[in-house]
Design a protein that fits this description.
227 residues, alpha/beta, 6-stranded mixed beta sheet
C-alpha cells in the first residue's frame, strides 16, 4: 500500500512507537466499525498517526461518555468532536465531514426546508445531536412534538419504517448502511432527504500538543497522497 510504504520512508526506524489511546463513540458504520477497529474515519486517523510513528488504541464508550473520559484524562484523545464541545484540547485539522439530513418517508409528504419545519414532528436523532448540531438545532427541536436521542442508530431505521417517528436526523451514509442491514422489517418505502444541515466537520481532540501537531502533519501528507 502506498501510504504504508511512504510511512517507512518518512519515519526513522529508531524512533519507538507511541501508543495513543482515544475514546470514540460506539459504532457509526461505515465511518466507525467497532468489531474490526476500522471504518472510513478510523482508517484515516490510524494512517495519519502512523505517518508520524504513532499507533492508535481505541476505547468505545457511549457518545455521552467520550468528552467525560477526555476531561478526566483517562484517554489521550477524543474522536469525532467539534469546537462546540468546549474541550480544553489541541483540536486537529478537519478529519472528515458528515452530512446530516432530516430523513422521512416520502409518503408522509412533509415540507422540510429549514430547522423550523421540525416543529410539531416526532423527531429522533443520534446521541448528543444537540451538541454536535449547535444551538439553532437545539432550539428548533424544543418545538418538536416528541424528541428523542438514541445511541444505537440501527433503531432509527426501525422507528421510521414502523412510523413511530416522523423524522430521523442522521448522516445519510450511516442511515443507509443500517437500512441495508435491516432484514426483520420491510424497508422498501421511498425516502426523502431534505438538505437542511450544512456539512458537519469533525476533529480529534488531543491532550498533547506535540501529538496533535504530528497528527496534523500526517493528515496533510495523507491528503496529498490521495489527490
Amino acid at each position: 500500500m502506498l501510504i504504508t510504504a511512504l510511512a517507512y520512508i518518512l519515519l526513522p526506524t529508531s524512533l519507538p512507537a507511541h501508543e495513543i489511546t482515544a475514546a470514540v463513540g460506539t459504532s457509526l458504520a461505515p465511518y466507525i466499525i467497532q468489531d474490526s477497529n476500522s471504518g472510513i474515519e478510523i482508517d484515516i486517523i490510524k494512517e495519519a498517526l502512523a505517518l508520524k510513528n504513532h499507533t492508535l488504541k481505541l476505547r468505545y464508550p457511549s457518545l455521552k461518555q467520550v468528552p467525560i473520559l477526555y476531561k478526566k484524562n483517562v484517554v489521550d484523545a477524543a474522536l469525532t468532536v467539534t469546537k462546540d464541545f468546549g474541550l480544553d484540547a489541541c483540536l486537529s485539522d478537519i478529519v472528515i465531514q458528515y452530512q446530516n439530513f432530516a430523513i422521512s418517508l416520502t409518503e408522509s409528504n412533509f415540507t422540510i426546508k429549514s430547522l423550523s419545519d421540525l416543529a410539531n414532528k416526532k423527531v429522533i436523532a443520534f446521541q448528543n445531536a444537540t451538541t454536535y448540531l449547535g444551538d439553532a438545532y437545539k432550539k428548533a427541536v424544543s418545538a418538536a412534538a416528541q424528541y428523542t436521542e438514541i445511541e444505537k442508530q440501527t433503531l432509527q431505521v426501525n422507528r421510521l419504517f414502523l412510523e413511530r417517528d416522523d423524522i430521523v436526523i442522521s448522516d445519510k451514509k450511516i442511515f443507509l448502511y443500517y437500512k441495508s442491514k435491516t432484514t426483520h422489517i420491510t424497508t422498501d418505502k421511498p425516502l426523502t432527504f431534505p438538505p437542511i444541515f450544512p456539512p458537519s466537520p469533525y476533529l480529534v481532540a488531543f491532550l498533547d500538543q506535540k501529538v496533535c501537531q504530528d497528527f496534523n502533519e500526517g493528515l496533510r501528507i495523507l491528503k496529498q497522497t490521495r489527490k
